[in-house]
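Predict structure. Chain length: 111.
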Amino acid sequence: MVTAWKGDNVGRRFYGCEKYPNPGYCNFFKWRDDPVCDRARQIFLGLLNKMNDLREENRKLVILLEKLDEMSRILHDENGILEKEMRELKKENQLLKLQMKEKANHKSHLY
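Prediction complete.
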């Protein structure tokens, strides 16, 4: 059993050949449900449109999330590089301060 999701018979169930739409299908077809009223058809179509809109929004959000994940990975990597550089600069700074202190001590002993 299949449900029609387009046209005037939206939401209406029917029986058809199992092979359809592949080659070799027969023409067996029989409606399971009575035709739906205009109001039900409008509701079905409205719900289908809303569902399709939500699917499209979800697709866009998934793409955005993937981009944000990639940006996060890049920023994480860059942060690691910057932290390493900062540690190296702090070491260099400490070494320079120590050298300056030693030179200042050496100068003070000369006088």
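Summary: Helices lie at 38-110.
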